[in-house]
Automatic annotation (TrEMBL):
Gene3D superfamilies per UniProt: Dimeric alpha+beta barrel
Family: Belongs to the YciI family.
Protein source organism: Dactylosporangium darangshiense
Protein name: YciI family protein
Domain named YCII-related: residues: 1-111
Length: 126
């Protein structure tokens, strides 16, 4: 099963603040641990929302708003895309992800749906 582990941004990063060397080191260790366990598919941080846009479609109308966006705690700041055997295993990786952030972040874990390749066209939760 594939899972997306997302960390929420904060006002510091939304203002363009850079991760500390200690955070970069802890995240590097986390990524190496995930890779060694064979669960890491991809992981990256995201630039502040001022480098992005939000597109909203309602009733056939589409509006596009350039960033930045007001609520930093609602903005995804980084992610890890993993392959885990269960939600329990994904939760453990999410816990380690939060520890790598010194316990100072909100983390959300969501199972990814959709075809994974030949022979898997179910699209539903595994």
């Amino acid at each position: 099963m594939r899972f997306l582990i997302m960390s929420k941004s904060n006002d510091y990063f939304e203002a363009g603040g850079l991760p500390s060397p200690a955070l970069m080191q802890r995240m590097g260790e986390f990524m190496r641990e995930c890779a060694a366990a064979g669960v890491l598919l991809q992981a990256d941080g995201l630039l502040p929302s001022s480098y992005g846009a939000r597109i909203v479609a309602h009733d056939g109308r589409i509006s596009i708003t350039d960033g930045p966006f007001a609520e930093a705690k609602e903005i995804v700041g980084g992610f890890a895309f993993i392959e885990a055997r269960s939600l329990a295993e994904a939760r453990e990786w999410g816990r380690r992800f939060a520890i790598a952030h010194d316990g100072e972040c909100d983390v959300e874990i969501r199972q990814v749906t959709g075809p994974r390749g030949p022979g898997d066209a179910t699209g539903g939760p595994n």
